[in-house]
Design brief:
Two copies of one chain form a homodimer. Chain A has 15 helices and two strands. By secondary structure, chain A is mainly α. Chain A has one domain: Farnesyl Diphosphate Synthase (Orthogonal Bundle), CATH 1.10.600.10. Chain A is globular, with a radius of gyration of 20 Å.
């Protein structure tokens, strides 16, 4: 099925959709992984220990794959896409470490979060170290344009996280406000990861914009599917427990939709649960029942599909290639996780 | 007295020693402050609020002054020293925000620490935002050499902080190990701040090295004096309570020296205090008495003076100027805080 564009509507088994991309980027990705291991090294013992805990914990490396694929699809023949892909993954890893501290999460990708093993202090500082290394690697490429895009993304991600702090337990958050948060905290890095590919390939502005748009919309779809999975996926598939967002009082799109569609009494239930912290397992079951009653999970997936379609169309003007097909299949993979 | 090199041995009133530098950099510093205020801005309300809490809290802005002075002393006529100085201050501010979370500090520069007012979460994230803004500003200058120096400093600072985590309550830490920590966590940013001045001025390698060395040794002296003040200065002069390091179980040079010079019984006292967390005000008084008994505070100041002298000699080959005199006087200021 590789190379064939599959309609996003089709239900496929998870993982199938990234296979083509994984195969295409494999030689490059091996070099990215080698750089990641080398640059996570430090004479300060704790640093490689923590960094490797995260790096080895089986993330999909979707973001660096975007950088590699985008650069190759634009005909890039140099080495800098490897370095930039490693930078992107480090930025992501740093964000995860800081996120876990901010969210006080116990688990990350099905393993104990680093902060549970080494403390909040080490998570903050190793995150800072990885962010510093990410910038050093970008500087190595000598591409000021790539540095501009990625350093901008770093500030936008932090802004998004701060926005999330204030929307976290605020049930008046509407869909647009929520989108603004996830555009910043999640989609901006996907966008930057994709955009730096054509940038180092020396592509024209419309091509750079196309990849940026693809990455941004893929990122939005990815986050919305994550939100849906937190109320509907199985714990094993997600690598964390269902209901984490509920217990942390996080506003996500399923809740935004359900709250606005519900009765006064149902709204009181959400306020007590998310703002009031009354989020027992029994109440989680009630929450999921309410989400189903108002089609809030299905509609979140439908919204995600909308952004996946926008991402697909962003690449439409690009000429056909195995790379392009693989990037389209990633959209399919993303949606298929929740259906 | 401006323009006259004062012997470092002389006891002068605090602040006197930075006046010449402050006066020389004033026009540039006003522009740095304007940039700092502008770049601490964000549509996300919490960000400027927290950033300004720190920015307005009366830090000396010593690090950005180094960048400005170094650039001007090397004849730089452009604009980029302003931007780089603001970057340096943002890197420093980001470090302070993360430090307070790591150290669980209640106070910062005589005010409540940001984390006490807005929570650890916001401190971590606003620190990330400011670090991102720092990199964006560096990118604006287009100087890859400056980017290289400052991004390297960012990783070294984080490494130093992680090292400090492991040495924190470890009384076996020796002077060399302690120096390695403060070289990374404090002196590296002073060194980078000074080094980027001649870099954007296009100076020769020996000049760049001279400023790096000046900054590094000033940074070491500065930190050692801070350590001495924590056991000997007055609370008002320091902007934080005497004994913070003691209560946090932090290894600093006065303790390193005193522990190694003491009796078995005295060593037990230090272990119970710093490792065991038995650090009451009464025991702080005992600790200060022990430090005095072994001249540990005076000898820490003497060590600081050694680095200040190294810093002075680093600039020795540079031709005389008001800038050079002002930078030498900063060394004097640094030492005079503790005598």
């Amino acid at each position: 099925m590789s190379g064939v564009v599959v309609p996003i509507e089709g239900g496929r088994s998870p993982k199938a959709g990234v296979e083509a991309l994984v195969k295409l980027v494999r030689p490059d990705m091996e070099r990215v992984n080698a750089i990641i291991l080398a640059k996570a090294g430090s004479n300060v013992e704790l640093i490689p220990e923590i960094a490797r805990h995260l790096i080895d914990s089986g993330g999909k490396r979707l973001r660096p794959m975007l950088t590699l694929a985008a650069a190759r699809m634009c005909g890039y023949q140099g080495e800098h896409h490897i370095t930039l892909a490693a930078s992107v993954e480090f930025m992501h890893t740093a964000t995860l470490l800081h996120d876990d501290v901010v969210d006080q999460s116990d688990m990350r990708r099905g393993k104990l979060a680093a902060r549970m093993l080494w403390g909040n202090e080490a998570s903050v500082l190793v995150g800072d170290f990885l962010l510093g290394q990410a910038f050093r690697m970008m500087v190595e490429t000598g591409s000021l344009a790539a540095l501009n895009v990625l350093s901008h993304a770093a500030t936008v991600i932090a802004e998004g996280e701060v926005m999330q702090l204030s929307t976290a337990k605020n049930l008046e958050t509407n869909e647009d406000e929520y989108l603004e948060v996830i555009r910043a905290k999640t989609a901006a890095l996907f966008a930057a990861a994709a955009e730096v590919g054509p940038i180092i390939a020396g592509s024209d502005k419309p091509v750079i914009s196309a990849f940026r748009s693809y990455g941004m919309n893929l990122g939005l779809a990815f986050q919305l599917i994550d939100d849906a999975l937190d109320y509907g996926g199985s714990a094993s598939a997600l690598g964390k427990n269902v209901g984490d967002d509920f217990r942390e009082g996080k506003m996500t799109l399923p809740v935004v939709l359900c709250y606005r569609r519900g009765t006064d009494e149902e709204r009181r239930f959400w306020r007590e649960s998310l703002e009031g912290g009354n989020a027992s397992d029994e109440r989680l079951a009630d929450a999921i029942a309410l989400l189903r009653k108002y089609d809030a999970i299905d509609d979140t997936v439908a919204r995600a599909r909308h952004y996946a379609e926008m991402a697909r169309d962003a690449l439409a003007p690009m000429k056909s290639s195995a790379w392009k097909d693989a990037l389209i299949e990633v959209l399919e993979f993303c949606i298929s996780r929740a259906v």
